[in-house]
Amino acid sequence: MSERRRSARYAMDHVKGVLHFSADARVLNMSLSGAAIETSAPMRLGRTYTMTVRDREGQELSLQGQVVRCRLRALAKGDGQDAAPVYEAGFRFGDTLNDAATDLLHFLEHSAVVEVGQRILGRFILGADSMAKIDSGLPFLV
Fold first, then answer.
1. How far apart are CA 111 and CA 14, in angstroms?
2. Contacts for 93-99 with beta carbons within 8 Å, 24 or more apart?
3. Which residues pair with 88 in a beta bridge?
4. How high is the mean pLDDT of the chain?
5. Is the pLDDT of residue 116 over 60?
6. Is 62 helix (H, G, I), strand (E, B) or coil?
7. pLDDT tier at 91 (50, 70, 90 boundaries)?
8. Which residues of 39-66 are buried (b: 16+ CB within 10 A; e: fewer)?
9. Dist CA 131 CA 84 (whole Å)
10. Mean pLDDT of all residues in 54-67
11. Contacts from 19-23 at CB under 8 Å and sequence distance 24+?
12. How high is the pLDDT of residue 90?
C-alpha cells in the first residue's frame, strides 16, 4: 500500500494538549448569574464551557459557565432529509460576580420574601439575532 500523505508522520511520546470543541448557539435569555441557550450539540452536565457573545456593535464578551441542565427539546427539520436535534442548556456563570456579591446573591435567593416565580436578579431576553459560540477544551496525552 502506497503512502499518500504529503509529510511523514512521527510517533510522539508524552505530548500534552487540549482539543477545543466549538458549537454555535442561540441565547434564549441571560442574567448576571447565568444563561439559557439553544444549540444542536448536547452539553455535558457539570462541564465548564466558554460562551462568547457579541452585541450589535460587534463587541465580544467571553464568559465561563458550568452546565447545570441540558435536555433535548425538539427535532427540527434541517436543509437535508434528517431532523436535527435542538438542545436547551442552562449555564451558571462562574466568573461574573466577586465572592461577596455571590454570597449576597445566595443569601437573597434563600432569605428574601418574593412572589412565586419572581427572580432576585432578572433574566433578560436578548435580540432575535443573539448568537453565541460555545467552546470547551478536552485535554489529551499522546
1. 51
2. 93/32, 93/33, 93/34, 93/35, 93/63, 93/64, 93/65, 94/48, 94/64, 94/65, 94/66, 95/63, 95/64, 96/32, 96/33, 96/63, 97/32, 97/33
3. 38, 71
4. 81
5. no
6. strand
7. very high
8. beeebeeeeebbbebeeeeeeeeebebb
9. 18
10. 86
11. 19/137, 19/138, 19/139, 19/140, 20/135, 20/136, 20/137, 20/138, 21/135, 21/136, 21/137, 21/138, 22/133, 22/134, 22/135, 23/133, 23/134
12. 96
Flag whether pLDDT at 38 surpasses 80: yes
Is domain 22-135 in CATH 2.40.10, yes or no? yes
Grid coordinates in use for 69?
Answer: 441542565
Q: What is the mean pLDDT of residues 43-64?
A: 88
Give the per-residue pLDDT at 120: 54
Q: Which residue has the cell 441542565?
A: 69
